[in-house]
Amino acid sequence: MNRLIQGLFAIALLPAPALGAIPPDDFAACLDRIRDTARSRDIAPTTIDEMLGGVTPSDRVIELDRRQPEFTTTLHDYLNARVDRGRIQSGRRMLREHADLLGRIEADYGVPARYLVAFWGLESNFGRTTGSMSTVRSLATLACDRRRGEFFESELISALHLVDEQTLAADQLRGSWAGALGNFQFLPSVYRRHAVDADGDGRIDLWDSLPDAAESAANFLRARGWTPEQRWGREVRLPEGFDYRLAETEQSVNEWAQAGLRRANGKALPSADFDARLIVPAGAEGPAFLVYPNFDVIMRWNPSRAYALSVGLLADRLVGAPPLHNPPPDRPALPVDTIEALQTALQTRGFEVGPVDGRMGPRTREAIRTFQDQQAMTRDGHPDRSLLRALGIEQSEDSNDVE
Predict the structure, then answer these.
(1) What domain range is 22 assigned to?
(2) Percentage of the residues of the chain whose pLDDT score is greater than 90
(3) Stretch (H or E) spanning 32
(4) 285 and 179: one domain?
(5) What does the alpha-carbon distance between residue 47 and residue 318 come to, in Å, rounded to a whole number?
(6) Looking at the domain assignment, is residue 215 inside a domain?
(7) Residue 282, exposed/middle/buried by CB under 10 A (0-12, 13-18, 19+)?
(8) Do 62 and 145 form a contact (C-beta atoms < 8 A)?
(9) How many Cα atoms occupy the beta-carbon half-sphere of 226 within 13 Å?
(10) Distance between CA 192 and CA 153 in Å, rounded?
(11) Which terminus of the chain is more solvent-facing, meaning fewer CB atoms within 10 Å of its CB: N or C?
């Protein structure tokens, strides 16, 4: 599933309507508006008719949109499903098999081979699962859905441009439920702006040409600000009695070392003056990470912390790093209705949580941190059982945590 553009999940923080089909009249009116927009962008009428004629909405796309694992899976389960033995072994084999190509790309773009292979493994299982759903149907469905219509309408227009410009044939537009394409699951707008013809055959093929696909991925990362001499971040060990009010703050690596942070294995942090942010994505009982500027670049590919951690940790494992020293606790995720109750309780107390949508967005986590601070609780932004009790929220015994 593609997650390349930040808006894909940033806009997802808007209120979600109830799961259900798009009414036919609404969909038809939406397509008419999109046709008008396409004509205003100088897309040929024949292309518009060919691509949009007979398109119907997909209930399956709406269902998958509402059940994205970034919002419904704990960090423990998310990482275990992605940074797993099979993907690590396959990734190491890909590093060996494509060493010359990846080495050349690293030299030209400054993106180390292990990161490209990690993205490749997470996005399409090394090209095995690029998706077979109609890109136009998926994007039209999401464009006409109330929740993120503007974003996906723009992607649909980009898909029409790809065909109108003869970059792709209409029958090539097949991919993920969210409209993503090829080995690295590029959205159409990213395909247009960043895909390159690396093998020199006169066309850009992100499915069957690994040189095109891998170099395009490196080109995208470089355009988003990848810093060649830095890694993504690292797991760290916090000192005894650590003040969690420092979580989510940023200072230099050297300053974090002075504050008592060490590598996860207990060794001293490297000497470095660039800024790093401390995150504790599973709360005080889970792992802590110092994340560097390249972590934010990964999140410009997909603005999910769980995904960005998966990329960084998988890249590390591909070159021999050990598993996490302090893995996330294995606990059930909070149900959507419990998160909604939590958001409502915080909102009632005057905290800004964003939309009450059952999703743990950054504003909800910041509201939790502020409430925890006021209650003299550990300020880790994590909704554990003690937080729910403090907010007067009842919860079943078998569901007591969330990523």
Answers:
(1) 7-69+131-198
(2) 84
(3) helix 24-40
(4) no
(5) 44
(6) no
(7) buried
(8) yes
(9) 20
(10) 15
(11) N
User: 258, 274, 291 — which closes off a domain?
Assistant: 291
Task: For residue range 273-315, list pLDDT tens digits in order.
Answer: 999 999 999 999 999 999 999 999 999 999 999 999 999 999 9
Tens-place pLDDT, residues 48-81: 999 999 999 999 999 998 888 877 789 999 999 9
* Count of residues in the chain: 403
DSSP state string for 351-398 = ------SS---HHHHHHHHHHHHHTT---S----HHHHHHTT----TT
Task: Decide if 113 contacts 210 (C-beta within 8 A).
Answer: no
Across residues 19-37, what is the average pLDDT? 89
Q: Is the pLDDT of residue 3 over 80?
A: no
Q: What is the DSSP string of 290-334?
A: EE-HHHHHHHHH---HHHHHHHHHHHHHHTTPPPPSSPPP--PPP
Residue 139 to residue 149: CA distance in whole angstroms: 9
> At 278, which amino acid appears?
L
CA distance 9 to 360: 12
Which residue in this structure is represented by tokens 């490209």? 116
Domain boundary residue, one of 255, 271, 291? 291
Q: Are residues 350 and 265 in the same domain?
A: no
CATH (domain of 150): 1.10.8.350
* pLDDT at residue 20, as a whole number: 56
Is 95 among the domain residues? no
357-392 tens-digit pLDDT: 888 888 999 999 999 999 999 999 999 999 999 999
Name the burial class of residue 65, with classes exposed (0-12), middle (13-18) and buried (19+) by CB atoms within 10 angstroms of its CB: buried
Q: Are residues 49 and 135 in the same domain?
A: yes
Task: Determine, yes or no, domain membership for 154.
Answer: yes
Residue 135 falls within a domain, yes or no?
A: yes
Bridge partners of residue 263, in order along the sequence:
236
On whether the CB atoms of residues 338 and 393 are closer than 8 A, the answer is yes
Q: How many domains does the chain have?
A: 3
pLDDT of 395: 63
Residue with tokens 């247009």: 192
